[in-house]
Amino acid sequence: MVGGQPAAVEVQAQAAKSLPLSVSTEASGMGVVTVQTIWGESNWRPDQVEIYLEEHPFKAEEVAAVHRLLPQGAPLQIRSRRLAKTLVCVRVCTPTTSASAGLEVELVPAFDAGGASPSRFQLVRNGRPLAGYPVAVRPARGERQNVLTDDDGWVRMPAGLSGPVMLVAATLDPPKEPGGTLRH
Questions:
Q1: pLDDT exceeding 70 applies to what percent of the chain?
Q2: In terms of residue numbers, what domain contains 67?
Q3: Tell me, what's the pLDDT at 65?
């Protein structure tokens, strides 16, 4: 939807690290495009477990639970999927009244009065705010910054950002028993 009207989204190409999309509509305004992958399973060798846990912005308590429940020298079994959301502007960049896409985990933007770009985002899971979660802020130019959500799940955009910015957050459901599968 763009400006309250249907929009067509077409995959332009598939690449190893990107999915270029084209959005077309007769309407003008801001729209939200979401992508959700199917669940996949993978196993990480014992010597790769720390690499996996460090490359994602997981909450420290979740990582500690994985360490506690993963037997020494065991592979890490993971069931995961990716959820992505992109804000797009067609002809004008008028903020949407609601940019929640209803994904299991998402960053919902909020706009200051008169602003065309989000000033902050709320990290939610199943509609509930996630407090104290790490979020990686990756500008197209410049260094990656790691920030934490506040008590209500909000993260403010660092000052001076412009252009495309990617926010990355991850949730982790530690295994229920030692040696179980991690859900991410």
A1: 95
A2: 33-184
A3: 87
- Tokens matching residue 164: 């495309």
Is 103 part of any domain? yes
Query: Is the four-CA dihedral 33, 17, 14, 49 of positive or negative sign?
Result: negative
3-state SS assignment for residue 54: helix
What does the block give as tokens for 159?
Answer: 């000052």
Gap between the Cα atoms of 170 and 63, Å rounded: 12
175 exposed, middle or buried (CB, 10 Å; 0-12, 13-18, 19+)? middle
Cα angle: 67, vertex 103, 130; to 5 degrees: 50
Cβ–Cβ under 8 Å, residues 94 and 29: yes
Q: Decide if 3 is inside a domain.
A: no
CA distance 93 to 4: 13
In 56-162, which residue ranges form alpha helices assigned H by DSSP? Answer: 60-69
The CA distance from 107 to 174, in Å, is 22
Strands 105-110, 83-90: pairing is unpaired
Would the pTM of this model clear 0.85, i.e. be above it?
no
Q: Where are the alpha helices (DSSP H) in the chain?
A: 49-55, 60-69
